[in-house]
Amino acid sequence: MLCEAFTTGAESVGHTVTRFDLQKMTIHGCLGCMKGGKDVASPCVQKDDMQKIYPAYVKADLVVLASPLYYWSFSGQLKTAFDRLFAVAETDPKYANPVKDCALIMAAEGDSQENWKPVLDYYKALVGFMGWHDLGQVLAGGVLQAGAVAGKPVLEEARKFGAAL
After folding, report:
1. Rounded distance, CA 117 to CA 110, Å?
2. Cβ(4)–Cβ(156) under 8 Å?
3. What ranges do the domains of the chain cover?
4. Fold designation for 2-164
5. Alpha-carbon distance 7 to 131, whole Å?
6. What's the pLDDT tens digit per position in 35-87?
7. What are 85-108's pLDDT values in tens digits?
8. What is the per-residue pLDDT across 109-153, written as a single tens digit (0 to 9) for each?
9. Rounded distance, CA 134 to CA 40, Å?
10. Following DSSP, what letter does each residue of 88-117 receive, concatenated?
11. What are 144-147's contacts with CB under 8 Å, separation 24+?
């Protein structure tokens, strides 16, 4: 619901949004083989659903990382897909990542500063190492069950955030 609200806001001001529901995709973990990067159109040696993500990632101005908070981090699906983006960096002789603007959308059961701290520390470190520019976060705490965010002000926050970019 948070992603839908963000998308509605972004599209309302003319942005094009491409969304990938990673839990519905087949994406294998990075092999650490260092054999990618030979083909810009298909940078990884593994041929799975990342083939759908790579062109959108390269073209994107903004990457929004959206995930539930699982054990004070991103979901395994997001981490697996993100690891596989290294194949794109391998297309550059210096292993430089494409510079992007980015944002974080996340839902979690807990809603304290202590609850969010580990994932926000990781996100900030990741963004820093990637050389990306963080445009902000929408954090929805107190939402244990799917759909529990319905009717909460954070949905409007996500829509406004999308429209403000």
Report:
1. 11
2. no
3. 2-164
4. Rossmann fold (3.40.50)
5. 24
6. 999 998 899 999 999 999 999 999 999 999 999 999 999 999 999 999 999 99
7. 999 999 999 999 999 999 999 999
8. 999 999 999 999 999 999 999 999 999 999 999 998 888 899 999
9. 26
10. HHTTSTT-PPPP-EEEEEEE-S--SHHHHH
11. 144/109, 147/1
Give CA torsion, residues 121, 123, 127, 129, to 10 deg: 60
| 3-class secondary-structure state, position 138 | strand
Identify which of 156, 135, 111, 129 has the alpha carbon closest to the alpha carbon of residue 63.
135
Q: Is 65 helix (H, G, I), strand (E, B) or coil?
A: strand
CB 15 within 8 A of CB 103: no
pTM higher than 0.70 for the full model? yes
Phi-psi region of 131 (alpha: psi -120 to 50; beta: other; left: phi over 0): left
Query: Which H helix or E strand runs over 117?
Result: helix 113-130
Copy the structure tokens of residue 45: 């040696």
φ, ψ for residue 143 (rounded to 5)? -130, 80
